[in-house]
């Protein structure tokens, strides 16, 4: 049985587009109401996207392996980009504490989840 991933792809595309718009790439003045609306919309779309991840259930061992590989790849890319951001900002002597917080959170949750799953499954 094949999954229809179109909802996930559309939701991820909308989330990435909203995140891009929040960067204000064209330097247009963003009124407070527009900014708040975009932030609220981004939060709702992220919650919708997270619901796809939380509802994932593997069909067989192969599907489980594919999901595990996707999770590993996402973790490695996310942590790699975050550490790259820390390195780039460290060179200019202004490391954003949020980058350190994100990297630390990713590592702690990864290790904690691994210990929890080894003990409970």
Describe the sheet with the most strands: none
Report low-confidence residues grouped into runs of 5 or more: none
Report the C-alpha radius of gyration, rounded.
18 Å
Distance between the termini: 26 Å
Q: What is the residue-averaged pLDDT?
A: 86
- Helix-strand topology string: HHHH
Helix content: over 70%
Number of helices: 4
Total number of strands: 0
Q: Classify the beta-strand content into a percent band.
A: under 5%
Structural class from helices and strands? Answer: mainly alpha
Shape: globular
What does this entry look like structurally?
- With 121 residues, this protein is mainly α.
- The protein is 79% helix and 0% strand.
- It contains 4 helices and no strands.
- It is globular.
Give a topology summary.
Layout: H1 6-22, H2 32-55, H3 61-91, H4 97-120
Helix pairs in contact: 1-2, 3-4
Short synopsis of the structure:
By secondary structure, the chain is mostly helical.
What distinguishing features does this structure have?
about 120 residues, mainly alpha, 4 helices
């Amino acid at each position: 049985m094949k999954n229809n991933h179109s909802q996930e792809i559309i939701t991820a595309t909308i989330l990435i587009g909203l995140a891009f718009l929040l960067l204000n790439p064209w330097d247009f003045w963003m009124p407070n109401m527009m900014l708040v609306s975009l932030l609220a919309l981004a939060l709702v779309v992220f919650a919708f996207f997270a619901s796809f991840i939380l509802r994932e259930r593997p069909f067989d061992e192969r599907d489980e392996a594919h999901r595990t590989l996707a999770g590993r790849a996402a973790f490695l890319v996310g942590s790699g980009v975050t550490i790259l951001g820390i390195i780039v900002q460290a060179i200019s002597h202004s490391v954003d504490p949020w980058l350190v917080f994100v990297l630390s959170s990713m590592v702690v949750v990864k290790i904690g989840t691994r210990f929890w799953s080894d003990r409970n499954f």
